[in-house]
Amino acid sequence: MLGAIIGDIVGSRFEFDNHKSKNFSLFGGDGINHARCEYTDDSVMTVAVADALLGRSAGEDDGVFRDRLIGRMHYHGKNRLYAGYGARFFFWIKDGLSEPYYSWGNGSAMRAAPVGWVSDSLAETERLAKLTAEVTHNHPEGIKGAQAVAAAIWMARSGQSKDQIRKYIEKNYYPEAFRKSLDEIRPTYEFDESCQGTVPEALTAFYESDSFEDALRNAVSLGGDSDTLADITGGIAEAYYGIPDEIRREAMEFLDDEMRRIAGRFAEVFQKKCTE
After folding, report:
1. pTM (2 decimals)?
2. What is the pLDDT of residue 108?
3. pLDDT digits (tens, 9 = 90+) for 73-118
4. Which pLDDT tens digit goes with each residue over 9-44?
5. Using one digit for the tens of pLDDT, what is the confidence trace for 119-178?
6. Which of 157, 210, 213, 259 is most buried when burial is the number of CB atoms within 10 A of its CB?
7. 139-175 in b/e burial notation, b at 16+ Cβ within 10 A?
8. Class of 2-275 in CATH
């Protein structure tokens, strides 16, 4: 799931100052803009989902998991309250709410990466992704976005090819997902907070990549909601390519101690056994 967090950090400085090029330094210092790379709400909620999954036991009741997930989202969100949440989600966190609000926003997809690593089957992965989405994003598009991301990650870490992933996503989630290339999308693509306007583009950024780093560069180059695009792309790219050690080490320095600890524990418990 660290791939999603890295994508968020890399894309963070371009969210409101798009850079429609693949030519930039991953973690800043290139003079392109004055914004600094940082983790945002995408990383905070990815960690919250990972934290909730770490506490999940075999055969656990869905209601128990849902309550723990909401609790972890509130805990991590309130401790990092100004990480850039959308307005409705901000008040959901701040006021300690527990009911969903029928959102189709890309917040459900941006936090879905951990789900792709914990289950033995694709069907269970998609079911669990639905659970993590619908605590807030219970609109069909919000659920679909989370499921598509988690499914792509599960397939990638299970050794399936890009063509297999593409065909499955087209058949089950986004029939038009890969009809346009990045070069065709880029000129007119604008900021879009919806799952349906973010997840297919992130998938295309992964599909046209040749490495983890290249996938992040593809995502940022589209413009739009850069941190979330790169977050989703990075989560899938990690499962397919792995993460270069140097990029991993540099990214971890952006996280606070608690986030770093949870990310490390999640990798040890779930990801290590999937990649051995």
Report:
1. 0.97
2. 98
3. 999 999 999 999 999 999 999 999 999 999 999 999 999 999 999 9
4. 999 999 999 999 999 999 999 999 999 999 999 999
5. 999 999 999 999 999 999 999 999 999 999 999 999 999 999 999 999 999 999 999 889
6. 259
7. bebbbbbbbbbbbbbbbbbbebebeebbebbbeebbe
8. mainly alpha
Number of CB atoms found within 10 A of residue 221's CB? 24
- Backbone phi and psi for residue 105, each to the nearest 5 degrees, phi listed first: -70, 165
Sorted by where each begins, the domain ranges of the chain are: 2-275
The sign of the torsion formed by the CA atoms of 214, 216, 222, 223 equals negative
